[in-house]
Amino acid sequence: MEFLLILLQPYVVIFVVIMVVMLALLPQRRASARAEAIAEQAPDLAELASKLGGSLSGLGQATAWTPRLQRSALQAELTLTFRRGPWHVRVTEAADDSAVREHWIEVATMPVPPRKVRQEFLELSFEDGFVHVVGDGPVRPEELLVVVDMILETLDATFGMAPRDPSAVV
Predict the structure, then answer these.
(1) Per the domain annotation, does 103 fall within a domain?
(2) Predicted pLDDT of residue 170
(3) End-to-end CA gap in the chain
(4) From CA 116, how far away is CA 86, in angstroms rounded?
(5) What domain range is 123 assigned to?
(6) Predicted structure pTM score
(7) What is the pLDDT of residue 57?
(8) Mean of the pLDDT values across residues 72-82?
(9) Among 52, 94, 115, 150, which lies 20 to 30 A Cα-Cα from 140?
(10) What is residue 142's predicted lDDT score, i.e. its pLDDT?
């Protein structure tokens, strides 16, 4: 009975109400923070897309090519798609509600047996007719082409590796 009297004290009730309101507004605050992050990133990537002759897709249209990345717990927010020589490249920035951010670099290739190839700075995953690399944090446009070119140099030097159109059924 005393416990119930303590819970019904005005300051306890006010505290509980404030906590419920804060918890109710938390997802909305996270969503607005994500929208701000996308808005900050989009102009830099749009400029890069125009330089590369590619396209930029925003929230609701952004998606990964690789089936495993499509099933990720992270939601694709921005996608930059372009060609680099004969290679089709897609860079996707993804995040979840807890502000975990990463980016995916994918290259469409002819199907090869699934495997991972560890390099000095990154790990290439070969699967489902794509090669992909997962990076932490948002896409950094100033570093993106260097990393993409490192990946493509590796693919060019790999025996039996050939580019393909990502829309082609394999």
Answers:
(1) yes
(2) 60
(3) 70
(4) 23
(5) 42-157
(6) 0.75
(7) 84
(8) 88
(9) 115
(10) 84
Contact assessment for residue 166 and residue 108, using Cβ atoms and an 8 Å cutoff: yes
Cα–Cα distances in angstroms (integers) from residue 147 to residues 13, 36, 117, 119, 141, in the given order: 55, 26, 15, 12, 10
Longest pairwise C-alpha distance within the chain: 78
Going by the DSSP 8-state scheme, the letter that residue 9 receives in this structure is S
Cα separation, 112 vs 159, in Å, equals 11
Collapsing DSSP states into helix, strand and coil, what is residue 19? helix
How far, in Å, CA of 125 to CA of 147, rounded?
15
pLDDT at 143: 87
Residue at 120: amino acid letter: E
- 130-136 and 123-127 beta bridge pairing: antiparallel
Residue 23 falls inside a structural domain: no
Q: Number of structural domains, the chain?
A: 1
Q: Which of 66, 67, 70, 71 is nearest to 88 (CA)?
A: 66
pLDDT (0 to 100) of residue 125: 92
Q: Is residue 143 part of a domain?
A: yes
H helix intervals, the chain: 2-7, 10-52, 67-70, 141-157
CA distances (Å), origin 86, targets 83, 97, 135, 156, 161:
7, 36, 23, 10, 12
Closest by alpha carbon to 149, among 52, 41, 44?
Answer: 52
